[in-house]
Amino acid sequence: MRVTAIIAAGGRGLRFGGLRPKQLLNIDGRPILERSVALFLDHPDVDDLVVALPADLAADPPPYLRAAPKPIRVVAGGVRRQDSVANAFQVTSGDSVVVVIHDAARPFASADLVSRTIAAAIESGAALAGLPASDTVKRTDDRMVLETLPRESIYLAQTPQAFRREVLRDALALGEAAADATDEASLAERAGHPVRVVEGEAGNIKITRPEDLAMAEAIARRSAKAERRASMRIGTGYDLHVLVEGRPLILGGVRIAFERGLLGHSDADVVCHAATDAILGAVGAGDIGRHFPDTDPKWKDASSVDFLRRAASIVREAGFEVSNVDLVVIAERPKLWPFVDAMRTNLAEALGIATDAVSIKGKTNEGVDATGRGEAIACHAVALLTNFQS
Ligand code: MG
Predict the structure, then answer these.
(1) What whole-number distance in Å separates Cα of residue 15 and Cα of residue 208?
(2) Do 354 and 217 lie in a common domain?
(3) Distance from residue 257's CA to the centre of ligand 1 (Å)
(4) Same structural domain for residues 253 and 225?
């Protein structure tokens, strides 16, 4: 089912007084409009977007509206909000079953709120996010109270607001005919369609006045911090060394009795080399050759467990912890399983993590190619890293 998002950004934000439209102001280094657009670009239920901008901006839209992972059309807004939405609706594809409208000035709506609003519109025809009133509400005339409204029945309308296509068409036709409205849901309501309220979010603030910017900054910083805390990185590593006579065989820091050993500048421990590349790769810190070049006599016959230990401190300095590593060692001979636990212990110690966060599996190559003929031993590694910086 095709779902189109309309971002209403046609206003100039006159209450801000500045020269630039408020939707282009930065919050924590990122424009309000870009944040609101990203909510729908990243949303799995949304197929394409239409953004209504003031005419001068629509003629020269910011770069993040030009190259995006989903189709974005930009239209010039109208005099009233509903005119901007009507212009945007005109260019939506006829096979968009649901249209979800959002104010650019509400960059903090959650993806979950968008999902719930779309789902409710599919079921009921029209739906909006609404925040239950927490204050007592008075209806007045000339500052004299006429009545106190039952608070339980009061919801403060937010966006997103979502509509089945034909419902929005009716609503906008009514809006064109005359009726002025501050949101599309009230037009749908006046056009006689049922409109459902889904529970909105207190954090889904509308940036209307200059003083709202301070709160918006605080919200943006808090969520950026939460994102950083949750960030994970993955890295992959691979290594192969040739088996020759007259060298010791060292795998995962374990010296294994065998008639041949791996050839290399260091101890040629493919297990540690692959693991080292995986964790360096996860933080974009290059590879083992960059940090421990085989042209440097310092690393001649060095223990590769040391490389891994040093790489672990490089990734810690970058703010990451290794969560786990998983390795596949490809060796026709010798059998590796008797040594696997000792290798895991060595790697865990070098990485500063628990032994059960290190997995090593031995494989043969079924006699095929160089490793299968027993001429070399290879290793594949993946590592998951987590950033716990605040
Ligand atoms: Mg190597």
Answers:
(1) 7
(2) no
(3) 20
(4) no
- What average pLDDT score do residues 61-67 get? 90
CA of 267 to the centre of ligand 1 (A): 9
Lowest mean pLDDT among 197-206, 276-285, 292-301: 292-301
Report CA(271)–ligand 1 centroid distance (Å): 9
**Same domain, yes or no: 14 and 162:** yes
Give the pLDDT of residue 390: 46
CA of 387 to the centre of ligand 1 (A): 27
Confidence tier at 388 by pLDDT (50, 70, 90): low
Do residues 221 and 252 share a domain?
no
Structural domain for 204, as ranges: 2-229
Could you give the CA distance from residue 272 to residue 343 in angstroms, rounded to a whole number? 9
* 95 and 189 housed in the same domain: yes
pTM equals 0.63
191: pLDDT strictly greater than 70: yes
Ramachandran quadrant class, 125 (left: phi over 0; alpha: psi -120 to 50; beta: rest): left
Measured CA to CA, the distance from residue 118 to residue 3 in angstroms comes to 8
Position 180 pLDDT exceeds 90: no
Co-location of 194 and 299 in the same domain: no
Residue 329 Cα to ligand 1 middle (Å): 13
